[in-house]
Design brief:
- The protein has about 260 residues and is mainly alpha-helical.
- It has eleven helices and no strands.
- The protein has helices at about 15, 20-45, 50-65, 80-95, 95-110, 120-155, 165-180, 185-190, 200-205, 205-220, 225-260.
């Protein structure tokens, strides 16, 4: 009878070699979180120089609707500094998102097989693309639509909009939709790890739609159905895109046993 191969020797199962205890997983998670925070901190230092340009860019959706000469107001002395800090942090997160997703991949990679780990670059590129696309969709489509709707509802009143409430709400929508656009990437990872299959995803499609509408209701600025659909319908399309990604992950798993036999 052949003796079992020691861990770390050539020919041993790479997945078995990568098994870690719970404490090792927690330590690895801590290390990845710390490293993922370093990149936005570095990007923050560079973005802080353009804080005025960032504030002006993010204020365009409301200034295009408000009467000419109307400006956002602030109530507290520290409000401008706090808003500049939050806006710069949000932009720094988007700028450094490739490195952040790289840390996510490094945490997930030990649970994948050797041939699946070569998808690191596509994962980082796709995650960054969907995250930025979600923020762009929020800024150019979802939020302006909500602003038009809300300002139109208040035509009988004089708008006095504070900068704190406006920017906080806008950043909440941008970050929320950025995360929601990561749904196809999340589904692909779960399929690659064997947690879900395309058949499972389609069988529970109705429950997924309900969950998507619940999440969209959290991000949606108003309780009306029109704005809710603006957020939910693209996410449903992303879910179906994730089903296709899960199918690709399943094809790769089917090819692996055939390659092993050859």
């Amino acid at each position: 009878m052949a003796e079992p191969r020691p861990r770390g020797l050539p020919g041993a199962d790479p997945l078995a070699q990568s098994r870690m205890t719970v404490l090792e997983h927690l330590e690895e998670l801590r290390k990845r979180i710390v490293r993922a925070l370093i990149a936005p901190a570095i990007a923050f230092a560079g973005c802080w120089t353009f804080r005025d340009e960032i504030a002006e860019l993010l204020a365009r959706p409301i200034y295009e609707v408000l009467p000419a000469g109307t400006r956002l107001a602030f109530l507290g002395l520290s409000d401008p500094f706090v808003l500049y800090f939050k806006m710069t942090a949000l932009v720094a997160l988007f700028v450094s998102s490739p490195f952040v997703f790289y840390q996510v991949w490094k945490f997930v990679a030990p649970g994948l097989h050797a041939h699946e780990r070569r998808y690191a670059l596509p994962f980082i590129a796709a995650s960054t693309l969907f995250f930025v696309a979600g923020g762009f969709f929020a800024y150019k489509v979802a939020f302006p639509f909500a602003v038009d709707f809300l300002i139109g509802m208040g035509q009988a009143f004089e708008p006095v909009i504070t900068a704190d409430r406006y920017y906080r709400f806008l950043m909440y929508v941008i970050f929320g939709l950025g995360l929601m656009f990561e749904l196809p990437i999340l589904i692909f990872l779960l399929a690659a790890l064997g947690v879900v299959t395309p058949r499972f995803l389609m069988r529970h499609f109705r429950w997924a739609v309900i969950l998507i509408f619940v999440l969209a209701a959290v991000v949606t600025p108003t309780p009306d159905v029109v704005n809710l659909c603006v957020f939910a319908v693209p996410t449903i399309g992303l879910y179906l895109l994730g089903v296709g990604a899960a199918a690709l992950a399943g094809v790769g798993k089917k090819k692996r046993p055939a390659a092993s036999e050859l």
